[in-house]
Design goal:
There is one protein chain. The protein is mainly alpha-helical. The protein contains eight helices and five strands. The strands form two sheets. The protein has a three-stranded antiparallel sheet. Strands 4-5 form a two-stranded antiparallel ribbon. Strand 2 (about 55-60) and strand 3 form a beta hairpin. The longest helix is centred in the C-terminal third of the chain and has 23 residues, at about 140-160. It is elongated. The model is unreliable at about 170-185 (pLDDT under 50).
């Protein structure tokens, strides 16, 4: 359920209807680098979050169309979102999507939240490296282990390259507009 919890981050900013969320997802360049979703999938995820008590919907009348569902974050949804945002991902394969979404929202929350997430992920990454065996084996298993170790080391190095401080002047480079966030930082 990790990826769908990212949707709570949008509703947390402001109550939104499904198409509004779809438009934001599909028109936010930073998110399109890592996440694309079909509209039907988005509606299914929103229904699942509502059924789980993380979102509640109100009906908003429209003059010439049926009323639309506007989603609001519940207290339970807020708690689930905060927990999701603070927790590092558990597997290296989750870095490409789940961690990137967490980083996107953590950076929007501010430097402290982003740094805390990065540091927690670095600790998990160190644990991943510690579990990698260097036992001499047959060629194929040895090649697989070497690949896994190199992948984790690349993640570790990338995490270390992320900025841990955003000076006051650089905060102007984070632009909040129309509910979207454009993040610019140098590595």
């Amino acid at each position: 359920m990790s990826v769908e919890l990212a949707l709570l981050g949008f509703v947390r900013r402001r109550p939104s209807h499904g198409y509004e969320l779809y438009h934001e997802l599909s028109h936010t360049p930073e998110l399109r680098l890592v996440w694309r979703m079909k509209q039907s999938r988005l509606y299914a995820l929103l229904a699942r979050l509502e059924e789980g008590g993380l979102l509640r919907a109100t009906l908003q009348p429209q003059e010439t169309r049926p009323p639309r569902k506007v989603f609001h974050l519940t207290a339970r949804g807020e708690a689930a979102y905060r927990e999701w945002l603070e927790q590092p991902v558990a597997q290296p394969r989750e870095m490409r999507l789940a961690f990137m979404l967490k980083l996107y929202f953590a950076m929007a929350e501010g430097q402290e939240t982003a740094v805390r997430l990065i540091e927690r992920q670095q600790a998990v990454c160190a644990g991943w490296l510690a579990t990698q065996a260097n036992d001499p084996e047959a060629p194929f298993p040895r090649a697989v282990r070497a690949y896994r170790r190199a992948h984790i080391e690349a993640i570790r190095d990338w995490l270390a390259s992320l900025p841990v401080e955003w000076p006051e002047a650089d905060k102007r480079n984070t632009e909040f507009h129309r509910g979207r966030i454009a993040l610019r930082f140098s590595v």
